[in-house]
């Protein structure tokens, strides 16, 4: 009987050690990954909508500062630093388009507003694709 209780006690201790040293850290990493994906999904979805709609989903176009405020959360969640830089450049380029299109700035001699629109439209699609890749990366 004593051997049975000793074996049972050792089994309980070993089970608790396995739980504390292996299972709990594994579950914590899994929960963190699930949380991070949910945060990225929400943030990247908002940013993607803004990029593809050229920030015109609102009643008025947004200033670059408003777009940066929206992008800030995504910037914190993006691992690819080049993607952050490319989004930053896109926001500036898109603002340039709106400034020229509204007549607030003069286009450069070699600048065509239709070409600039096509360029920012294609850039937005590429950026959204890259955000999707970032979302699905481990």
Task: Supply the key terms.
138 residues; mainly alpha
Q: How would you describe the overall organization of this protein?
A:
It is a single chain. The protein is an all-alpha fold. 80% of the residues lie in helices and 0% in strands. The protein contains four helices and no strands. The protein starts with a helix and ends with a helix. The model has no long low-confidence stretch (mean pLDDT 85).
Concise overview:
It contains four helices and no strands. The chain is mainly alpha-helical and 138 residues long. It is rod-shaped.
Give the topology.
Elements: H1 2-52, H2 64-77, H3 81-101, H4 113-136
Helix pairs in contact: 1-2, 1-4, 2-3, 3-4
State the end-to-end CA separation.
Answer: 51 Å
Structural class of the secondary structure composition? mainly alpha
Helix content: over 70%
Write down the overall mean pLDDT: 85
Oligomer: single chain
Taking all Cα atoms into account, the compactness measure Rg is 25 Å
């Amino acid at each position: 009987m004593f051997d049975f209780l000793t074996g049972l006690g050792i089994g309980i201790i070993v089970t608790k050690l396995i739980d504390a040293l292996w299972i709990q850290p594994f579950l914590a990493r899994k929960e963190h990954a699930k949380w991070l994906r949910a945060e990225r999904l929400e943030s990247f979805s908002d940013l993607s909508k803004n990029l593809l709609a050229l920030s015109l989903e609102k009643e008025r176009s947004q200033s670059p500062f408003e777009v940066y405020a929206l992008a800030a959360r995504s910037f914190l969640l993006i691992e690819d630093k080049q993607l952050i830089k490319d989004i930053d450049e896109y926001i500036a380029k898109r603002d340039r388009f709106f400034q020229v299109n509204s007549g607030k700035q003069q286009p450069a001699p070699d600048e065509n507003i239709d070409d600039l629109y096509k360029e920012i439209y294609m850039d937005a699609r590429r950026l959204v694709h890259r955000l999707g890749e970032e979302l699905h990366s481990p």
